[in-house]
Amino acid sequence: MTPLSLAYSPCPNDTFIFTPWAEGRIDGAPPVVERYEDIDTLNRIALAGEPDVVKVSFHAFGLLRDRYGLLRSGGALGRGCGPLVVARTAFDTDGLASKTVAIPGRLTTAALLVRLFAPGLSDANIVVLPFHEIMPAVCNGQVDAGVIIHESRFTYQRHGLTRIVDLGEWWERETGHAIPLGGIAMRRDLGAELIRRTERTLTASVDHAHAHPAHVWPTIRRHAQEMEDDVMRQHIALYVNDFTRDYGPEGEAAIRHLLETAERLGIVPHSDQPIFA
């Protein structure tokens, strides 16, 4: 069969999840051609309908549901794993709306959460930067605050930055739900049989990575060359959890609540398509 185009980030949690599949270690798996991009680019190429299977922010997924459905495995969803707002010096969270704030892409879940937390934050006060440029921009005064994701939550204190708010903790406290960050979407027009096969493959890839970490560690390290091993391990431990193998009822409820909230506020359009492929 023609290989599926598979697009995901080079972050440790994604390379941990996808490497067994991409390296042909899963029996019966569809062949794939990989593409590595940052999350903002992944969201944009998904909007253009380019990849067959793609890691996207749940914010962006709200705009993709007519073309893509969500797979039940491979996502980043959990508790204590949400984006952080950081700054050089502490300030009251009520003042966040008046600050210049860097975000890692307009369609990231991080961008959605900071808008929900500080609804008065205007477009004029938002600066879009690649996620790895946000902490330097805060440090050098280019912006007042930044919304950080990925491994930055483990390293921001080394840069002399202080946490203003943990948007994941806030979301969990306000809603009672875990925080959905990103999921794996697949084009609906590829058909139910291939979608089911891909979903089984993805679950098996997660299981294989857990059972055989030595198989995936060289690839993880190669794509995260500037990251220390202990940070990579913390990253994987936080973002690859029980929800990653299968969202289950709790994860599904969290995803549905986030999307319904975004729909109600007019941030994403209503869709009659089911969430899952």
Describe this structure in words.
The protein has 277 residues and is of the alpha/beta class. The strands form two sheets. Strands 1, 2, 3, 4, 5 and 11 form a six-stranded mixed sheet that branches. α1 (12-22) crosses α9 and α8 packs across α9. It is 43% helix and 18% strand. β1, α1 and β2 (32-36) form a beta-alpha-beta unit. It has helices at 12-22, 39-47, 58-61, 109-117, 131-139, 152-155, 167-175, 192-211, 213-223, 229-239, 242-245, 248-264; strands at 4-8, 32-36, 53-57, 68-70, 76-78, 84-87, 101-103, 126-128, 145-148, 162-166, 179-187. It folds into two domains: 4-78 and 178-264, Periplasmic binding protein-like II (D-Maltodextrin-Binding Protein, domain 2, 3-Layer(aba) Sandwich), CATH 3.40.190; 84-175, D-Maltodextrin-Binding Protein, domain 2 (3-Layer(aba) Sandwich). The longest helix is centred in the C-terminal third of the chain and has 20 residues, at 192-211. The protein is built from twelve helices and eleven strands.
